[in-house]
Design goal:
This protein has a 4-stranded mixed β-sheet. It has a two-stranded antiparallel ribbon with strand order 1-2. α2 links the parallel β4 and β5. It is an alpha+beta fold. Helix content is about 20%, strand content about 30%. It has one domain (about 25-130): RutC-like (60s Ribosomal Protein L30, Chain: A, 2-Layer Sandwich). The N and C termini lie close together (about 10 Å). The model has no long low-confidence stretch (mean pLDDT about 95).
Length: about 130
């Protein structure tokens, strides 16, 4: 399987995501549902704390990628939903926050008015392409 990360001339090369990713060859497509900061009791982890919620979500996404036989390098698209884009941007730009990507996936961030629990501040879903 071969992946090509393309940021074409004439389109802003963004520091947080790739514009285009092409994939060819034998592969396995992996779709991961939106991960929220939801604990085993269905309640919200760290209400009101964007940093802790984001780190929790990323930890759970890492576990799901591993379970599917993939890594963060296999992620080709992420979609981020948040109640507060500025707060999430501040968290993700903090140098102490781990950056799981060497090659940035395609990405969309969407500001929303509500997620599936009133205390959730962030939800992230992923698409990954791994070797068979």
């Amino acid at each position: 399987m071969q992946k090509e990360f393309i940021n074409p001339p004439g389109v802003l090369t963004h520091p947080s995501f790739s514009r285009i990713i092409t994939v060819k060859g034998p592969m396995k497509l992996i779709f991961i549902s939106g991960q929220t900061p939801q604990g085993d009791d269905f309640g919200c982890m760290a209400p009101g704390d964007m940093r802790k919620q984001y780190l929790f979500v990323m930890e759970k996404l890492s576990l799901q990628l591993e379970a599917a036989g993939a890594t963060w390098e296999d992620v080709t698209h992420r979609r981020v939903y948040t109640l507060d884009i500025a707060a999430l941007r501040q968290v993700t730009s903090d140098p102490s926050i781990p950056k799981p990507y060497k090659n940035l996936p395609c990405s969309t961030m969407i500001g929303v008015t509500e997620l599936s629990h009133p205390d959730f501040l962030v939800e992230i879903d992923l698409i990954a392409v791994a070797n068979e």
